[in-house]
Design brief:
Chain lengths: 467, 291
């Protein structure tokens, strides 16, 4: 938390900082060329030439390898895709007689086009590093100092540059499997990639803001009204799922922690079972329990309490309530564990002096326990709220978004969250463009809530209050 | 004296109510598991009983037919089990290595762009995970890691981006006194040496927590596993295989077989969890307070 606060102070005007850094780099490139010797100047087209001539083999080879890799990638692969990026392909796949002649594949053009654009940006960065390295070496030599031996350069990767060694693999993984796909999907939101435009048999292309216009148009398509209905339920669900579990979990923790209660470990273990058992087993089973022919309905009818089965999953309102109730079963143990640890941190003498003053149990909870818990768990409440916004497993394993409704577009059901709806659009409807739009909207909702709430949290505003 | 005994009496009454509440809670929490166990012993053989939904809880005759079926050659259950186990082991090791690397770098090293990187990852995390499903699918397909190759594909996907989940682990590293690092550095130890010799042994609880959480996740991964292995039965994991029994084959009476499969999955995972519960609680509580 202290980190982000420091970052907030440092980041006065990110745009200004960026442009001044950019200007500095360009100036540096110019002066290095003007004042540099021939080794440095040849380094401009041939990366790493200068370091190699100055016997900085490790750095020289690394820089040169980057350039060669880029050229090899661009010639053999990248340019082909990047050149078609503006149109996403023009040659459609055709059937000539019985033979299918494959044309352009819009999907791959978009994906590898993006990759190539990023590769170009990376090359520019390497170029700047290359220039900077030449400059540094020249200045050192001019001052009459020796350049570090190669062994030391390599060794620094395990010492003062150890962070680079540690972060290379994780960052590469995150880049390929998170950053690139997210940029790709953001681009898809501006294309007409859907069931009618499936690569490789059909082309798809850029359509500008058309998909977003559809999202916010209250026309006959019904997409907009469905979106707001689903968004509304998503927010209501996240609110109830977070706060009911929070307070009930805390309550159970207080019950177990009471003085004089024995077998504390047993009670906790019983509750923790729901965390331990894989959710797809427990939730699928519980979902079946609430079916019309499930245990609950069957026994209630046997005992004559009800005449016909309660439509737990087919009545929209009842389905929503059932989900929230079952989620308590999942959520309480988790909160109970957290609350147990935190409750022990509250100084016992606070309670003692309160009870000497004649405070009732409830008053002690209201004025000691609750303020402390809310203060400490503020950030946790925020993250669990945003996690619940995207709580795919509970909804999907219990209802798969059902009951379905004719009034809703794109197969949305009455208990669908934005994420489960997104999943359905991707898997069942293959309507990738709208799935991408919904994904962006989920991001917007999460980001807005996080930004608005985070800065208002008492534990962020006033770190000292409870210390 | 009189007042004291009244307080005692009050407490005794309060405790009685607490016990009643706790017993009720325990019954509610345990009932589904009790039902699961009971129904897993109901035979699906029509000559004995029925494997679908029935209107009673305790089977009329206890039989091991479901378990026998699961272990026999007539289903790929054992294969799914093996797939899931392989995925879980590799993901557990891989994710832990990734998270340890990132946590150490972010907790102990100060480098240019560190805060920018953390902020960037935080923002990335706000995109829903399923958004990129199609893109990841086609990426994997390029390397032949879908359908028949779904198991390595799923391992790759789960490990690749796991560095972003560094919060809990970094929070733990932050609590290890920096003075120890400084002392080791004065003695001439390199950063790498400190990482391996000093930090990792001290981080044992959080390593166990990370491994445990990573190991448990693949056992309920339905969404991505079903997408990557689509239509290729041999690459399913247990969640995909068993979920299909419940959703598509229920009326042929696969319900009790699902229950038995669920038991076979839940028992080892639960036992492991209970053994390592201490570490889990520590990690979860630490993570919650850090936010």
């Amino acid at each position: 938390m202290a980190d982000s606060a420091a970052a907030g102070r440092a980041k006065k005007s990110p745009a200004g900082a960026f442009f001044s850094a950019l200007g500095g780099s360009i100036k540096e490139i110019g002066t290095t060329f003007k004042e540099g010797d021939w080794k440095t100047r040849i380094s401009y087209p041939v990366f790493g030439f200068g370091p190699l001539m100055r016997k900085q083999v490790v750095k020289g080879i690394a820089l040169l390898a980057c350039e060669l890799l880029f050229i090899w990638y661009m010639v053999g692969f990248g340019w082909n895709y990047m050149s078609k990026f503006a149109t996403l392909g023009t040659v459609a796949t055709e059937k000539k007689g019985r033979v299918t002649v494959y044309g352009d594949n819009s999907f791959l053009i978009l994906l590898f086009g993006l990759l190539t654009i990023i590769a170009v940006a990376a090359l520019i960065l390497v170029f700047v590093l290359n220039v900077r390295e030449n400059r540094r070496e020249e200045l050192l030599l001019r001052e009459g100092k020796a350049l570090p031996p190669n062994r030391k350069v390599l060794g620094s990767l395990l010492d003062e540059n150890f962070d680079k060694t540690l972060l290379t693999l994780p960052m590469a993984g995150i880049f390929i499997f998170t950053v690139l796909p997210i940029i790709f999907m953001i681009c898809v939101a501006f294309t007409n990639y859907d069931a009618q435009h499936q690569a490789p048999s059909n082309l798809f292309t850029w359509v500008g803001l058309a998909n977003f216009r559809e999202l916010f148009s209250f026309g006959s398509s019904g997409f907009s009204s469905t979106f707001f209905a689903v968004l509304g339920w998503t927010l209501v669900w996240a609110f109830f799922a977070t706060f009911i579990d929070y307070f009930l979990g805390m309550g159970v923790a207080i019950l177990i922690n009471r003085k004089g209660i024995r077998l504390k470990k047993l009670w906790r273990t019983v509750l923790v079972l729901t965390i331990a058992v894989p959710q797809f087993v427990s939730l699928l089973y519980v979902a079946k329990m609430f079916d019309p022919d499930g245990l609950i309905n069957v026994y209630l009818m046997k005992w004559g309490w009800i005449k016909s089965a309660i439509p737990f999953w087919t009545n929209p309102m009842l389905a929503r309530i059932t989900i929230v109730v079952i989620n308590i079963w999942i959520g309480i143990p988790y909160m109970m564990l957290i609350a147990t640890g935190l409750l022990m941190n509250i100084p016992a003498d606070l309670y003692e002096s309160a009870s000497l003053d004649g405070a009732t149990g409830f008053q002690m909870f209201r004025f000691i326990t609750l303020p402390y818990m809310l203060f400490v768990t503020g950030p946790f409440l925020l993250t669990s709220f945003t996690n619940n916004l995207n709580n795919f497993n509970v909804i999907f394993l219990l209802t798969r978004g059902r009951p379905q409704s004719m009034a809703m577009a794109e197969n949305a059901g009455r208990t669908d969250l934005l994420v489960t709806w997104l999943y359905k659009m991707t898997v069942n409807n293959t309507d990738y463009k709208m799935a991408a739009v919904i994904g962006i909207m989920v991001f917007v909702v999460t980001a807005v809530i996080t930004l608005v709430v985070y800065s208002r949290l008492p534990s962020v505003k006033d770190e000292e209050a409870f210390q | 004296m009189k007042e004291n005994s009244s307080i005692k009496r009050k407490r005794a009454i309060g405790n009685t109510f607490t016990y009643i509440a706790l017993v009720l809670i325990s019954i509610i929490w345990l009932f589904p598991f009790f039902g699961l166990i009971m129904q897993s012993f109901r035979s699906f053989d029509p000559a004995v009983e029925y494997g679908g939904m029935v209107d009673y809880l305790i089977p009329k005759t206890f039989s091991l037919d479901n378990y026998r079926f699961l272990l026999s050659k007539s289903t790929n259950f054992l294969l799914w089990y093996r797939n899931t186990f392989i995925i879980a082991v590799f993901v557990s090791i891989g994710q832990t290595i990734m998270i340890l690397c990132v946590s150490y770098a972010l907790s102990r090293m100060r480098f240019k762009g560190r805060e920018l990187l953390m902020r960037f990852w935080l923002i990335l995390g706000m995109f829903p995970g399923f958004l990129t499903m199609i893109c990841l699918y086609f990426l994997l397909k390029q390397f032949g890691l879908t359908q028949a190759g779904a198991v390595p594909g799923l391992i790759l996907i789960s490990i690749a981006s796991s560095g972003m989940g560094y919060y809990v682990c970094k929070g733990y590293f932050d609590t290890i006194p920096r003075a120890l690092d400084e002392a080791a550095r004065i003695d001439g130890a390199s950063r790498a040496k400190i990482f391996f010799i000093l930090t990792i042994p001290m981080a044992k609880p959080i390593i166990i927590y990370t491994m445990l959480v990573a190991f448990m996740a693949p056992w309920c991964d339905y969404v991505f596993a079903s997408y990557v292995a689509f239509g290729y039965d041999k690459s399913y994991n247990v969640a995909v295989g068993l979920t299909r029994w419940v959703w598509t084959n229920d009326y042929q009476g696969y319900f009790t077989r699902f229950c038995a499969g669920g038991i076979l999955i839940a028992v080892p995972v639960t036992v492991l969890f209970m053994f390592l519960q201490k570490y889990y609680v520590e990690g979860v509580t630490g993570g919650a307070v850090k936010g």
